[in-house]
Amino acid sequence: QMRLEMSGGGLAQAGGSLTLSCAASGRDFSTYDMGWFRQAPGKEREFVAAINRIGGGTHYGDSVKDRFTISRDNARNTLYLQMNSLKTEDTAVYYCAPIVSGDYDPRSYNYWGQGTQVTVSS
């Protein structure tokens, strides 16, 4: 099983930026499409962004489109999420995970790792 370690979360002001990282080990990272998900307090986990295994195709949730950018460095086994123009509603725990068969529904997955907390203040 792929082990994933997320980092880069923290406190940011609305309008600011943060970059999240997801370091993978244990499996061949470059053979997996990867995604970011998030879960806000009292809400269900939701899809944020996905990128294909070679980094040539991306897909975003409507709430983050044009503000967030997903990328990957297969040589470093690392996935990134650049978050710009942050809003208070982006406050959540963020998780990375392999995407299987283009399925962006978080209910399809049951391994999430520890996540990284992002808090956006007004």
Short précis:
This protein is an all-beta fold and 122 residues long. It has no helices and ten strands. It is globular.
Could you say which structural class the secondary elements and strand pairing correspond to? mainly beta
Major sheet attributes: 6 strands, mixed
Task: Count helical runs.
Answer: 0
User: What Rg is obtained from the alpha carbons, in whole angstroms?
Assistant: 13 Å
Find the count of extended strands (DSSP E, 2+ residues). Answer: 10
Task: Give the ordered list of helices and strands.
Answer: EEEEEEEEEE
Strand order, sheet with most strands: 2-10-9-4-5-6
**Strand content range:** over 45%
CA(first)-CA(last) distance: 39 Å
Q: Could you tell me the mean pLDDT?
A: 95
* Portion in helices: under 10%
Low-confidence stretches: none
What is the approximate shape? globular
Structural features, described:
The chain is mainly beta and 122 residues long. It is built from no helices and 10 strands. The protein has a 6-stranded mixed beta sheet with strand order 2-10-9-4-5-6, with no helix packed on it. Strand 5 and strand 6 form a beta hairpin. It starts with a strand and ends with a strand. The mean pLDDT is 95.
